[in-house]
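Protocol step 4 of 6: record predicted structures for both targets in the notebook before any analysis. Target 1:
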Amino acid sequence: MLYQIALTMIYGVGSVHSRQLLEYFGTAEAIFSEKERLLEKVPGIGAKTAAEIKNPAVLTQAESELAFMEKNQISGLFITDNAYPYRLRECVDAPLLLYSKGNIDLNKTRTVSIVGTRNATSYGRDMTEQFVSDLCAAFPDIQIISGLAFGIDIFSHKAALKNNLSTVAVLAHGLDRIYPGVHRSVAIEMLQQGGLLTDYPSGTNPDRQNFVKRNRIVAGLADATIVIESAEKGGSLITADIAFSYSRDVFAFPGKTSDPQSRGCNKLIKLNKAGLITSAADFISAMNWEEKPKVIQAELSFTDIDDDNPVTSLIRQKKEMHINDLAIELEVTISELSVLLFELEMEGKVKALPGGRYRIP
């Protein structure tokens, strides 16, 4: 883990260049073991950045961070690890390293991000609590992601805890602190039933720009992002836009046109960036997550029997599958699978359903 941490601490090297270095040298350790003159030859690196990689202070800083992690029972999830969230890995700007604390499984079958205004009304609180409660009734293993902020975020976490759901807070600072401090007790409770996650090392302050950056993780971790109350501008709209750019499902609860705290939600719906929902049932239906009755196929055609395409064979076996589950079963990336599914859909061999699910016609 030492070299993976160090790779994120090189001055002037972001996630793009870090991935290039990994592609060239295979592992983080190999990067730091390589000669400076060979590092310079990597496109986009050059002599200045190569010197930064070989700077002894980088490994010293990483050693300090690793010691902090071990002392405080913090785990590191590197982008090549099996436990790294597969949904997030498919995002172009996914962080190389995540720091986590608690009892976290970021690859649960169903995961939903819930975001909204910090200045929530009683309507927003009630909708959040009811939505999470109804989701739990339908899917007791669903996971709730949010950001531990005031308003809708903390209501989401509290509702998840109340319903014994796993819930994860994505933080905009290091795990040596909790912000806001008044939510510390909730954060501690979450460690037994989810946990805390960040891509920032210890010592990082909760600066404003960090909250915008962390929103990509909130969006990237989930199958869908739900916006419950949002003003015309705000962090929740940024999260929704990021989720939309990832081709993830986005939904919003509408509100009165005269209500300032609903203008953002109404705008998302108006611009077709979010589906309109009024309940968990609406959401479940839109995601096509309802339980389907099992149908016994009376007979198979010769093409069914001879079909050795692993994609169609697996979908036929399961009756219907989500693209994320297909990717896990077939051990391929979402991007590779999307191309295959599109070709099969054009050939009439699979049918795309709402919510990223597929079945055989």
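Target 2:
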Amino acid sequence: MIISKLNLNKALQILNESAQVFVPAFEVIEDRAAKKSIREKKFLPYREDLEVELEGPNTVKPPKDILFPNVEKLYQYKAAGEDSYIRETLPEETPKILFGIRPCDMRSIKSMDKVFFTKNYVDSYYARRREYVTIVAIGCTETDRTCFCDSMGIDPNTAPGADVMMNRIEGEEAYLLHAQTEKGEALLKNLESLEGPSENVKAIRTDCTLKIRKIPDLDRKLAEMFEHPIWDKVTKGCIGCGTCTFVCPTCYCFDIDNENYGTEGCKYRCWDSCMFSDYTRMAGGANPRPTKKERLRNRYMHKLSYFNERYGETLCVGCGRCIANCPSHLDISEFIEKSSAVDPKAEVYTESIRAAQGKEA
């Protein structure tokens, strides 16, 4: 199916009649500290007055909160004799359409599916939202300086797993759409009235500007580098703010807490960060990750080694958001490059000798 760029708003209006549509759009945010306005690209519920932007760089934050909200009520309870109860608060059955997500974000959703659907466990809250979401992915026409998804095995022009794949047509102000699932076929059927001619069209293709060396068996190599001095070096600039985890499309750490109102209350979960010291602090005060070194090492190891060991794929999708938004300019792609040049055993041995010599001196 071909849809002209001029008919894009009409298409979104049609889709919005039967589902809540989320689109990448610009929102003006007032920065009171800096006393200025900032235009931030994010996924927002569609409105006719929105400045929808399907092309250009990716959104600042991923669309994962649509499936995995920042704060989510799990159940309500009441402790009052015969009137006592515990009631699960599952999400409403509301159809949603994620329109215009990038291939890296589609891959991140597939990774989240593995976390919440596999290994003999199904998260009923995530599952309910996932069931009622239809995903329209769009191939990138422009990549940011921090994008390196193709180095992580992702094609920025395709999105396996999306219900509809959408690409900008070369030399034309139009998009080529094709269904990849039954959900996608149903969605495109609603847009048949807008279909344009489809003769001799060719989709635009692009590549990432940031390239990193592909490392065979990176997950195994990092497992051998657990005590390597590279962790001391890479952690020096980290301030432990957790920004990297909150803009990452594949971070899913959460905390569970409750609110009490006399005999009633609710239990809820909210996003947390493995970069915070409280995340692993135990009731007695002990903490297996007491410093930023252990916490950053865990984050990188989870993205590049642990997840691969458990689910068979790397958790970093190369979207570059952590690089672009880190106030200390930490760069996971640079870390991967440096790791490729490391001989784990030789380096650790050399550093151990130097440390021993230093003590003797």
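Step 5 preliminary note on target 2. Residues 349-353 have pLDDT under 50 and may be disordered. Residues 2-354 form one domain.
Proceed to step 6 after PI sign-off.
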